[in-house]
Amino acid sequence: MLSVPTLFICLLPVILAQSPQRILSNHPNIQDIPTVHESAVQARRILNLSSIATLSTVFPNNQEISPFENRPSDLAGAPIGLIDYYASCDPTPHEPTILAISIATSFKNARAGSNVTLSLRYHPPVNHPPSDDIYTYSPANLPRFSLVGHVEPIATTEVRKHHTDQCFFDSHPDAVAWRPGNAIHESWWARLVVEQVYWIGGFGDRAYIGWIPVEEWRAVTQEEVENARLVGEQGYQKGREES
User: Which residues contact 210 (CB under 8 A, 6 or more apart)?
Assistant: First the structure.
């Protein structure tokens, strides 16, 4: 009878062949995973389909804290992620439009110099077709990504010219209550100027995982976004032809 250590050594090649690492990172022998550009198209599709994401900022090192805020004094350098509304609007649909509330923590941090990250994930349609593969609609295998950049105010002339407010309110009609000039809180139109894009398309043996050059992100056309289909959407075809 083989000893336990000897048996383990004999089985090691089999264990390694089944290692989950193969599905957690890009596998060099897989030729049919989406390209960087195809992944950028998929990410832009998600940006277009969604309108709510997690906005992350970092608390500044030197900022006066209002006694009314009751904020702990040792948060300098700590990140915080909060759900926020956004919309994909002209003339820069690749840079999310945001209705910034001056009193909100995220925008206080942004104004104090924090970079901003907007994190999104794909939600398949509720009526998506069934699948025998338990991983097809597993959140671990569905696309998600983060847009890294900074918040930039949108000039009033640009808002009027491109009807930014109407574009935003089409996705978030309740946000009319805190539009700029409201009687509740000071607010202003802003966009997230995207500087970096990090993408996880799913398991690494079938999807691209890694950074998408910002030039690639910007180069995606609206036609590509509208023609792309993600898993669960009507018209989706498995494989690289989906984008």
Answer: 26, 36, 198, 199
pLDDT of the residue at 243: 44
Q: What is the DSSP letter of 29?
A: T
Output the CA angle 110-114-117, nearest 5 degrees: 85
Task: Report the pLDDT value the prediction gives residue 27, as an integer from 0 to 100.
Answer: 53
Higher pLDDT, 227 or 62: 227
State the average pLDDT over residues 10-34. Answer: 52
DSSP structure class, residue 31: -
d(CA 16, CA 22): 9
Give the three-class secondary structure for 14.
helix
Q: Which residues contact 165 (CB under 8 A, 6 or more apart)?
A: 159, 179, 189
The string of pLDDT tens digits covering residues 216-232 is: 999 999 999 999 999 99
Give the 3-state secondary structure of residue 191.
strand
Q: pTM of the entire structure?
A: 0.83
Phi, psi of 108 (to 5 degrees): -65, -45
Assess whether the previous peptide bond of 91 is cis (omega < 30° from 0).
yes
Size of the chain, expressed as the number of residues it contains: 243
- Cα distances from 63 to residues 47, 75, 104, 117, in angstroms, run 33, 11, 14, 20
Q: Please check whether residue 209 is in contact with residue 33, taking contact to mean a CB–CB distance below 8 angstroms.
A: no
pLDDT band at 31 (very low <50, low <70, confident <90, very high): low
Q: What is residue 72's three-state secondary structure?
A: coil
Q: Which residues contact 1 (CB under 8 A, 6 or more apart)?
A: none
Helix%, strand%, coil% for the chain, nearest 5:
30, 20, 45
